[in-house]
Amino acid sequence: MEEISERTLAKMVETINAHLPKRQRKLKELLNERYPTYEARDGNRYLIERRELEFIAKHLNEEEIEDFKVPIVFEMYSLGGSVLIYVKDRLHAEFIRRAFGYDRFHEGKMVLHMHEMANVRKVLRTATQVAYGVMV
Fold first, then answer.
1. How far is the C-alpha of 78 from the C-alpha of 69, rounded, in Å?
2. How many CB atoms lie within 10 A of CB 59?
3. Cβ distance 18 to 42 under 8 Å?
4. pLDDT per residue over 72-102, tens digit each?
5. 77, 79, 83: which is closest to 132 by C-alpha?
6. pTM here?
7. What is the DSSP string of the chain?
8. Strands 72-79 and 128-134
9. Nearest-5° angle of CA 41, CA 18, CA 94?
10. Exposure on the CB side of residue 111, measured as CA atoms within 13 A
């Protein structure tokens, strides 16, 4: 089997992650909009449901609402038959701990199992995204 170059692999990962935001937006700003959206790297705009933003806000204090950025990004990596899911943003991890009770950390990053990410995504379907990565 032919090996894939690092450059080719990087391009493939970039393509499958085109749905990710160009930049995350502040929760406070989104709560004040009639139709809260963010722009993805592929140029599409994604609508975030207000009830999801309100759910997030009810688990944060005022200062955290000011700093919290949406969407929440889960970073998924496949490693030798296992799937690792990280939440690297400290405030996102703290919110997930409060709202869902997950409290597993490794080297300062929250680590979730697939079923835990699925539970979060059931509640926050439009306020979360999954970034796919490759560990070599």
1. 26
2. 16
3. yes
4. 999 999 877 788 899 999 999 999 999 999 9
5. 77
6. 0.89
7. -PPPPHHHHHHHHHHHTTTSBSS-EEHHHHHT-SS-EEEBTTS-EEE--HHHHHHHHTTS-HHHHHH-EESEEEEEEEETTEEEEEE--HHHHHHHHHHH----EETTEEEE-HHHHHHHHHH-SSSEEEEEEE--
8. parallel
9. 85
10. 9
